[in-house]
Amino acid sequence: MLKKLTRFYYPKTIEEACLHLGNREQKTALIAGGTSEVLRNDNNVEALVDLTKVKELCYIRHDSAYIHIGAGTPVQDIYKSKDLKGPSGELLKAAAGKIGSTLLRNSITAAGNLAGLFPWSDLPPVYMVLGAEVVCRKGKPKRTVPVQRFIDTRASQFLAEAEIIAEIMVPIYGKGTGVHFAKFAKTSNDYAMISLAIRLTQKSGRIEQARIAVNAITATPTRCLEAEKVLEGQKGNAELFAEAAKKAASSLTIRRDIRASNDYRKEVLEVMIRRGLQEAFDKAGK
Ligand SMILES: Cc1cc2nc3c(=O)[nH]c(=O)nc-3n(C[C@H](O)[C@H](O)[C@H](O)COP(=O)(O)OP(=O)(O)OC[C@H]3O[C@@H](n4cnc5c(N)ncnc54)[C@H](O)[C@@H]3O)c2cc1C
């Protein structure tokens, strides 16, 4: 509840937004898509800084190594982008398209989905398996950090006063890489019970790099490190994928979910990972 809210700012630039956030005379908070505002549990916020009019935060660009996504880019733009190609583009689009409804996707932003870091957020596992980097800005000065560090620390502790996420940088992967995204929920608009992202790189059938990350079934986005170890350096085949899937499901700390039991979701996860690994491996071989 925002009982003390008296000011609402619409900055037009990143520097202006950071200036408002740095104003110590009032308790200020940041919103982007605003879709999680009802969940805010800080009653003392007096001013909100809304990023929706900061046009320099809204873009999808490429260079030879990275896809650059402006923090304020609606996830619907990611889902509908015709420029997002290759394994990274495919994975980003697949996950973005599974977020909520069209109405929600028009508001939810690339960075808000990460910074909010809810258990049901679909993009963080994708950012993790793709090895994304988060560009943070405090006015003009900027720093770039691996998304894993950002997630491990949580945005509220990681970002300095008056600092915002400006961009997500996603590495581009070429031939030999296959990806997979899957979401398990009761309906297509429902929050995930399981969100799963996979990236595999293979050469002549041998898995060189495996990245598996989940959310929703865990309290925070989590890499399945033990399963990745099972896979790396091995020739890909159905038995190996089954073993890795079993390892992943048994090594995670499962979050309680009123919609289905832990055992049931664990079993579903194992099947999802096994099938996802096979699909990513097959794609990597094409
Ligand atoms: C009914 C409903 C269904 C949903 N379903 C899904 C779903 O299926 N999958 C899914 O992934 N999400 C879903 N969401 C969205 C998710 O729960 C969050 O609301 C959303 O990810 C937040 O993004 P936002 O852009 O609206 O950020 P906001 O709500 O505006 O902000 C969220 C947090 O991020 C911070 N923040 C935002 N932008 C920045 C920035 N640039 N720099 C630093 N901090 C920033 C804010 O300060 C705030 O703390 C759903 C939401 C609703 C309401």
Reported CATH architecture of the largest domain: 2-Layer Sandwich
User: β content, as a range?
Assistant: 15-25%
Write down the CATH topology of the largest domain. Answer: Uridine Diphospho-n-acetylenolpyruvylglucosamine Reductase, domain 3
Distance between the termini: 52 Å
Structural class: alpha+beta
Helix content: 25-40%
Please outline the major beta sheet.
5 strands, antiparallel
The helix-strand sequence is EHEEEEHHHHHEEHHEEEEEHHH
Summarize the structure.
The longest helix is centred in the last third of the chain and has 23 residues, at 262-284.
Structural summary, described in words:
By secondary structure, this protein is of the alpha+beta class. It has 3 domains: 7-53; 55-171, Uridine Diphospho-n-acetylenolpyruvylglucosamine Reductase, domain 3, CATH 3.30.465; 177-284, Enolase-like, domain 1 (2-Layer Sandwich). It has helices at residues 14-21, 75-80, 86-96, 102-105, 112-115, 123-129, 147-153, 155-158, 225-231, 238-251, 262-284, and strands at residues 7-9, 28-31, 47-50, 60-62, 66-70, 133-137, 142-146, 164-171, 177-184, 194-203, 206-215, 222-223. The strands form 3 sheets. A 5-stranded antiparallel sheet has the order 4-5-8-6-7. It has a 4-stranded antiparallel sheet with strand order 9-10-11-12. Strand 10 and strand 11 (206-215) form a beta hairpin. Helix 9 (225-231) packs antiparallel against helix 10 and helix 10 (238-251) runs antiparallel to helix 11. The protein starts with 6 loop residues before the first strand and ends with a helix. The model has no long low-confidence stretch (mean pLDDT 95). Bound molecules: flavin-adenine dinucleotide (FAD). The site of flavin-adenine dinucleotide has 32 residues, from strand 2, helix 5 and strand 8.
